[in-house]
TrEMBL record:
Keyword Ion transport carried by entry: no
Biological process terms in GO annotation: vacuolar acidification
Keywords, alphabetical: WD repeat
Gene coding for it: Dmxl2
Name used for this protein in its record: DMXL2 protein
Ranges for the WD repeats: 160-185
Pfam family, one: WD40
KW Signal (keyword) present: no
Length: 185
């Protein structure tokens, strides 16, 4: 799956030189993050205008439409994570009201699908990591802060400054004992 600055999103197969599907043509907002869900049957694309779009991967048409597309953040959606069986999605980004980490239910109509919005990261959340064993979300912000959320209780557990500049990467070890942060500096 490839995403570009021009907003185009294309899927390729290792053994074929031509694209299989063009999910999104050029001319849209820049792609900020893309993932497949754990089952491999859906892909999501976040963009610089705050939208998250989700497609079924097993499309027979060459230019399919997303089955879900909604604006998660008023400025940008920088990262997201599929939670559980892809019906729950967490997003990070920047919104005017500082609700920069959100939980969404994809099975509910788009006007009611926001489950919870965390007010955190004054200048926006840049990255997000889901820890399924512990049911935690870890987010990094533009000012170097890390927030850890309990998604069952829908509350922030910890906040601390890990870097002097924006957090650009988060990685979680498979046993969920440790996580690593990387910053713009």
């Amino acid at each position: 799956l490839t995403g570009a600055q021009d907003g185009s999103v294309r899927m390729f197969e290792w053994t074929r030189p031509q694209q299989l599907v063009c999910f999104q043509q050029a001319g849209n907002a820049r792609v900020t993050r893309m993932y497949f869900n754990s089952q491999g049957n859906k892909c999501g694309v976040a963009d610089g205008e705050g939208f998250l779009s989700i497609w079924q991967v097993n499309q027979t048409t060459s230019n399919p439409k997303p089955y879900l597309s909604w604006q998660c953040h008023s400025k940008t959606t920088s990262d997201f994570a599929f939670i559980t069986s892809s019906s729950l999605v967490a997003t990070s980004g920047q919104s005017n009201d500082n609700r920069n980490v959100c939980l969404w239910d994809t099975l509910v109509s788009s006007g009611n699908n926001l489950i919870h919005a965390f007010t955190c990261h004054d200048h926006g959340a840049t990255v997000l990591q889901y820890a399924p064993k512990h049911q935690l979300l870890i987010s990094g912000g533009r000012k170097g802060y890390i927030c850890i959320f309990d998604i069952r209780q829908r509350q922030i557990l910890y906040t601390f400054q890990a870097h002097e500049s924006a957090v650009k990467a988060l990685a979680l070890d498979p046993s969920e004992d440790y996580f690593v942060t990387g910053s713009a500096e």
